[in-house]
Amino acid sequence: MNDSSYRPIQHSSHSNASESIHGRGNSDRHCQPFYTTFSDPSTVADSNSNPSNSPFVALSPPETYAITSNGLEMYLQRPKGEVHSTNGMNDNLGEAATINSTFWMDSGKVTYEVSCDYVPGVVCAFILIDAVQVSDGELHLDEIDVELVGSGSARWQTNIFKPSKADPEPHYGHFDTKEQYPQNPSYTSFHKYSISWDSEKIVWGVDGQDARTMRKEDTYINGVPHFPGESDSLRLQLGIWDGSGAEGTSTWAGGPVNWDTAPQKIVATVRSVSVEC
């Protein structure tokens, strides 16, 4: 994607919750094995409740997600009111789910077993992220991404994001790639997407096969490293979002969303999440 097209899962709209939720706390940020099929409603806590006993917390309203017989369903809902499209963008965006883990990883492997509805303009993202306000007021926004993008369902995308004060401008999309499926070539089918991460490299995979390896030395731009998670732990984030709000983002996402033909509720389904250490 180009410099104007990048947009992480909608952190800003839920920033207060994101900054205050640390789950097990800063003293316990090492990798711990984990597995869930989201069969228990208490797996995901409401952001207004105490999330300390749940492995995940929703940063979006309760109507944007549900625990069902299929697993965790996350919804992008049709915007309230009229939607007008101008210059490839919509002036009214649908509300969608963002769900964070309350635990952190300092290395390890996470596997997301997911499917995503294919609707041009919609992005489903399953990532590792450090998005917290630190003491100097700066927002850390390290990311390691798996993205299922509405520009086409036959490929899935990988990316990293690690801003540096030395950058004259953010390097949006500098490290993104499009990857193929070994079988059932559509993200509308369930696939297992994995991110393996340590201090030296990141390996993305799908359905048990490695798809991309990025080493720390591959992330240098003008002598500056952009390797995410180098100085802090990362947590899991699951989400679906409307990419129609900015011109570059909308183009990248295949948008804007045409709500005259799109479902009233667009769904990303998470069947399982596992963490290996």
From TrEMBL:
PANTHER family: GLYCOSIDASE CRH2-RELATED (PTHR10963:SF22), GLYCOSYL HYDROLASE-RELATED (PTHR10963). The keyword Methyltransferase does not apply. GO terms for molecular function: hydrolase activity, hydrolyzing O-glycosyl compounds. It comes from the Eukaryota. InterPro entries: Beta-glucanase-like, ConA-like_dom_sf, Glycosyl_Hydrlase_16. GO terms for biological process: carbohydrate metabolic process. Residues 1-19 have a biased composition (Polar residues). This is Concanavalin A-like lectin/glucanase. Keywords: Glycosidase, Hydrolase, Signal. Residues 1-27 are annotated as: Disordered.
